[in-house]
Backbone:
């Protein structure tokens, strides 16, 4: 038999709607709205309760079994004054508690509702009357049952007078025991009592002994239809939740407005990020061409210096001159090491100078990029309001992120301008102290606003470093040109006394071995220097990119989130439409 009080699909749709809203509001600041949805979900778990009241012997239980056919088997054999029938996983009758027993039934039509049967209210104690009034307040509708012969029931009227605004429906049972005239007289008396008590409710006269066609008696099917259509309503759970549904609709409208602003903020920020990325991409492309050309020049310089070094060493590899100039082999070996170190120092200084000039040239282009970025951020609109109840904290974090990014851009641009114009000595001071400052900033993440003192603090830190604190520090570190073992072997082979006919042959062998060692070193040195130069410039690009990391991350997060939120909002609107069409 269909449940005349509740359709299960309504409960499912509403519950799903509130769950969707709960998910939709997860990343918002709408604390009150979240709490409201949470409470709505709790209320959805509550049953819709219907209470039946009347004197003992008025026919309450019989009426329940007639109206709510096959939903439960109602019986007046229960302990206490009240018995609540509700759905459960298994049939169960609980022990008496506070004057009430609970009977769980497995009939699906009982899901979401409960029906409370009562003993005769004329037998209730004062304490029981208080509890039944509390039960009336919790109930969605109250069925009031009088025997057609006894409509006075002072205790029942006393209880009803205290709840005149509650939804009620009146029944006169056992109508077959009265004449039509007597029945009509009692019906009129009930109406007067109701009027005196401020109660407005329909009255049905019924008899379980008649087939429903007797004069003055309402058929049970008609009673059931009336309860469904006019008392409980075709959609009782929906009716119960209409205020909550109306609030959901209002929230959706407000959320859509906030979401529209959030989307506009994202689109505006995305345009800024695209411009920044374009500037950086162009710089990277130009930088790569510049870097490739610079590395080729450095490699050519290394080859030239290595060739000079090789010629100088070979010119000294005459055993007779070695004997004349050096008293022992260790002196000759020390000489080779000295020449080696001189060339290493000379080449390091030369390459470092060239690298510094190359960095300065690149920094000029970086400065242009930063100036462009600063211009973009200066025109950034704050579209999403700080006091937006859905996304206010998001707006606040975006503005803070924007201010910090702008400050870092300005600070870094000032640094690059200073490095570009600095002397070689000052360049090295700033360059090395700058790394310490970068690490400090990266760890602390504390950057002031543009009007603050971050830039001044930066350069006070950098320029306050003494020359001695960075003395001898290089951008690049070139290792020994020819290894100590190879030089030692060269000195040993050439300084060892040999027969005259072996001297020239030995010298040629040593020269060939030395050339092989030099060529091997040449390849390694070019690879080493190329790697170091590439790393330096890549680190600078990373540093530039990191200035915009938080801004880029926030835009990218919204790029992924906004389509999902749009989908959720669309689903919520569709659910509300389903509710309206029930």
Residues:
């Amino acid at each position: 038999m269909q449940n005349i009080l509740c359709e299960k699909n309504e409960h499912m749709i509403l519950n799903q709607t509130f769950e969707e809203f709960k998910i939709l509001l997860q990343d918002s600041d709408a604390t009150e709205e979240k709490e409201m949805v949470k409470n709505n979900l709790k209320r959805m778990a509550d049953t819709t309760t219907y209470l039946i009241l009347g004197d003992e012997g008025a026919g309450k239980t019989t009426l329940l079994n007639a109206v709510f056919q096959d939903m439960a088997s109602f019986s007046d054999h229960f302990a206490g004054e009240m018995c609540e029938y509700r759905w459960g996983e298994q049939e169960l009758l609980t022990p008496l508690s506070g004057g009430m027993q609970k009977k769980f039934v497995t009939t699906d039509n009982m899901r979401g509702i409960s029906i409370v049967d009562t003993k005769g209210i004329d037998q209730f104690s004062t304490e029981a009357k208080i509890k039944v009034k509390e039960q009336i307040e919790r109930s969605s509708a109250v069925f009031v049952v009088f025997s057609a012969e006894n409509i006075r029931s002072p205790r029942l009227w006393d209880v009803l007078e205290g709840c005149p605004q509650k939804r009620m429906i009146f029944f006169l049972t056992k109508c077959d025991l009265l004449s039509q005239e007597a029945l009509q007289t009692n019906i009129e008396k009930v109406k007067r009592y109701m009027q005196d008590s401020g109660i407005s409710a329909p009255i049905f006269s019924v008899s379980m002994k008649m087939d429903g066609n007797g004069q003055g008696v309402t058929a049970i099917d008609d009673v059931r239809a009336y309860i469904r259509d006019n008392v409980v309503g075709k959609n009782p759970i929906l009716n119960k939740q209409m205020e909550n549904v109306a609030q959901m609709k209002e929230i959706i409208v407000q959320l859509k407005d906030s979401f529209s602003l959030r989307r506009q903020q994202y689109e505006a920020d995305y345009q800024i990020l695209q411009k920044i990325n374009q500037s950086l991409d162009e710089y990277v492309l130009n930088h790569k061409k510049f870097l490739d050309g610079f590395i080729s020049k450095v490699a050519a310089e290394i080859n030239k210096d290595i060739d000079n070094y090789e010629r100088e060493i070979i010119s000294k590899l005459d055993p007779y001159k070695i004997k004349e100039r050096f008293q022992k082999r260790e002196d000759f070996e020390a000489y080779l090491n000295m020449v080696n170190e001189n060339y290493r120092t000379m080449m390091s200084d030369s390459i470092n100078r060239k690298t510094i000039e190359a960095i300065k040239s690149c920094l000029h282009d970086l400065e242009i990029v930063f100036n462009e970025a600063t211009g973009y951020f200066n025109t950034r609109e704050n579209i999403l309001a700080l006091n937006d109840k859905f996304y206010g904290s998001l707006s606040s974090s975006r503005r803070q992120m924007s201010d910090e990014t702008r400050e870092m851009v300005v600070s870094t641009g000032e640094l690059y301008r200073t490095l570009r114009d600095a002397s070689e000595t000052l360049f090295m001071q700033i360059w090395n102290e700058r790394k310490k400052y970068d690490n400090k900033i990266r760890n602390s993440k504390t950057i002031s606003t543009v009007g603050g003192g971050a830039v001044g603090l930066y350069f006070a830190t950098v320029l306050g470093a003494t020359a001695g604190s960075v003395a001898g520090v290089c951008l690049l570190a070139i290792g020994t040109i020819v290894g100590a073992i190879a030089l030692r072997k060269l000195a040993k082979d050439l300084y060892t006394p040999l027969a005259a006919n072996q001297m020239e042959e030995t010298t040629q062998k040593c020269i060939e071995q030395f050339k092989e060692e030099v060529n091997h070193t040449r390849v390694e040195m070019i690879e080493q220097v190329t790697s170091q130069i590439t790393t330096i410039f890549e680190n600078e690009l990373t540093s530039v990119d990191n200035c915009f990391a938080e801004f880029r991350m926030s835009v990218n997060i919204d790029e992924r989130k906004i389509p999902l939120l749009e989908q959720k909002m669309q689903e919520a609107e569709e659910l509300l439409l389903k509710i309206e069409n029930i």
About this structure: The first strand starts at residue 48 and ends at 54.
